[in-house]
Structure formats: structure tokens, C-alpha cells
Amino acid sequence: MTSQSETSAVIGPAFGLWYDFRNPDAERSFSSFYAEILDQITRAEQRGLDSVWLTEHHFCADGYSPSPFVLASAIAQRTSRMRIGTNLIVSPLHNPVRLAEDSATLSLLSGGRFDLGVGQGYWVREFAAFGQQVRNRPSLLEEGIEIIRRAWSGSDAGFEGKRYSLPPVAVTPTPEQVPLLLVGAMADVAIERAARIADGFLSTQNAHHTAYLEALERLGKPVADARIYAGQWAIIAEDPEEVWSRIGKHALYQLNEYISWGAFGPPDQVPQFEDPAQILAAGAYQLMDAEMAVTELSTMLRDRPQIKDVHFWAQLPGEPVDSGSERIEYLADKVVPAVRERLRAGS
């Protein structure tokens, strides 16, 4: 079996899109929303973008995607070149055998274009609903990853751990091209764990790259071979301030929901944003036109060659699909080719 690193056709870092499929617009049906986004992704591939990343939450009134594997399967059938990954699946909420089976099936359906990104999660309500304890997140994550790797290898050795017990049975079918198993984290101890057990690191807002590389170094792993998949919180447009005036309210909704769930710490200790201007002042989102984006991204990618993929929120919750499509086209046409050219030229 071969790995993603042996089969990827992308030369240099990949550029992609990040989706949560949130639809707080009561007037827009989910069926039409899904159809529009699938069309959007198809056009993005035609314009040269390289990847699509899907994320997961449950019990959200706005429909935050609870079934990323189903969405990934639909995307795989509509695309031929894009890599498809999860950033991320909350793996402690799932039986790891099912994660292994679904991931293997997706890899086979997509011609080896799927990678599995997982994290330990944080939202107490989800853990309670799925019968798990938040305090058990680290061991659930670690044992789950071990089971997934064994399953993909075809092993029938079984497993006995603190959280999971698996009889001596083999999971089939196994992937012909083994997906990368990526782990996302933000706290120092979780970043150390990702460095120890993952094939690569899912980052958010570029805040933890150094911490991850330092963790690899402490573990005696080659830093030059590290793989970082960098989720971006940025609005890139010809006139980003004008665009922000229209969609900043959607970013406000997005970030305050995450804060209320505990994504950035205990909700009673992390204040919510009061308005879109405060988001920019805090650096939670960046506004960039093409020239600024090309400079920022080229510098980051040149200084941090371990970054293998840079992906951007394609649609803010409630943002009109046409608005997201305009930003995607601008990214694909004005930014990505210029960044690639700068990196090739070494400038």
C-alpha cells in the first residue's frame, strides 16, 4: 500500500477550502444549500484549487455538518483531482472501527484522495449525548488512533485498552492507499500528543506551528519531514473592507458560537466579541487584498516549508453562496498562481 505522500500530484503546498455546511438562513433549504456548495466545489477544482476540508459538530440548529463522511463521498464523486480531508472529526465521539471502515471506503471511492483528520473535541454537550466523558478525551483519542491504524493495516490481532476492547477480527476492505492520519490541537499538551502519534498537524489561525515543531524536536523526530495543514481565518478580496462590511456579521456569529461551546477555553472565562470590528482588532480574522495575501502567504510558506496545505473558510455561516464563490474565484485567480510563482522564483 502507498501513502498520500507517494501519490499526490500537487507540487509544493496545496491550496484549499474549509467547509462546515452551516445554514442558519431559515429561508434556504438544506437540500438546495448542499447542491449549491457541491457546484461551488466543482468550480473551485476547475479553477485549480487542490483540497477540500470538512469539519464536524452535532446538535446545532444551523446544521453544522454532523456527517462529514457522507459529504466527503459526494464531493469525491463530483471531483477528480482535489484531495478531501477532515479538519476535523471529533474522534472520541465515534467507534474507531467505524472511523477506520468509513475512511477506508472513502479512500477507495476517491482513488486514494482522502485523509483523516481528528481531534479530541471539547463540547461537553456532545460528549454527554454520545455517552462519553470529556475527561477521557486523551485516552479515547490515542486508543482510537491505534485501532484505526491497525484496522487499515489488515491486522486481526485485536485490541485491549483502557477505553476500547476489540476481538481478533480484521477490518475489510483495507485502503489501497493509506490515508494520512492527522491530529488537530491548540493546547500545549495536546500539541505534544499530536507530534507523538500523528502523521501531521492540523493547525488553526497559524498560532501553533512553532510549538508543534518544537514538540517534534523534543521527541527526536525529524523536523524537516513535518507536515502541517494550516486552516486560515482570513477574508481575501479585491476590497476586503467592503466585503467585511457585508459578511463580518457572519464571522461574529461563527466565532461567538465557538466561544460559547468552549472551543477557546471555558465559556465563562472567554468573552464573546461584541462586533465585527473587535474581531479584526483581536486578529481573529485578517482582511487582505491579493497583493497583501500573496506577500503574507509566500513569506509564511517560504519560512515554514513544513506547511503542506493552506485552506480557507469558503463560506461563513449565513453568507450567500454567491459571495463565497466570489472570494473563491479571487483566491484561485489572483492569489494562488502568484504565490506559486513567488515560491518557484524563491522571491
Report what the structure shows:
This protein is an alpha/beta fold and 347 residues long. It has one domain (2-247, 286-345): Alpha-Beta Barrel (TIM Barrel). Helix content is 45%, strand content 16%. The chain has 12 helices and 15 strands. The strands form 4 sheets. It has an 8-stranded parallel β-barrel with strand order 2-3-4-6-10-11-12-15, surrounded by 4 helices. A hairpin with a 4-residue loop joins strand 7 and strand 8. The model is unreliable at 1-8 (pLDDT under 50).
Sheet bearing the most strands, described?
8 strands, parallel, barrel
For the largest sheet, list the strands in their spatial order. 2-3-4-6-10-11-12-15
Radius of gyration over alpha carbons? 19 Å
* Assigned CATH class: Alpha Beta
Total count of strands: 15
Helix content: 40-55%
Distance between the termini: 38 Å
Give average pLDDT, whole number: 95
CATH evolutionary superfamily: Luciferase-like domain
The number of distinct helices, counting runs of at least 4 residues, comes to 12
Q: What's the SSE pattern?
A: EHEHEHEEHEHHEEEEHEHEEHHEHEH
Descriptive keywords:
347 residues, alpha/beta, TIM Barrel, eight-stranded parallel β-barrel, 12 helices, 45% helix, disordered N terminus
Set down the secondary structure blueprint.
Blueprint lengths: L1 E2 H4 L6 E6 L10 H17 L4 E4 L13 H11 L4 E4 L2 E2 L5 H14 L4 E6 L4 H6 L7 H17 L5 E2 L4 E2 L10 E2 L2 E4 L3 H10 L2 E5 L4 H10 L9 E5 L1 E3 L3 H22 L14 H7 L3 E3 L1 H14 L3 E7 L7 H25 L2
Parallel strand pairs: 1-9, 2-3, 2-15, 3-4, 4-6, 5-6, 6-10, 10-11, 11-12, 12-15, 13-14
Antiparallel strand pairs: 7-8
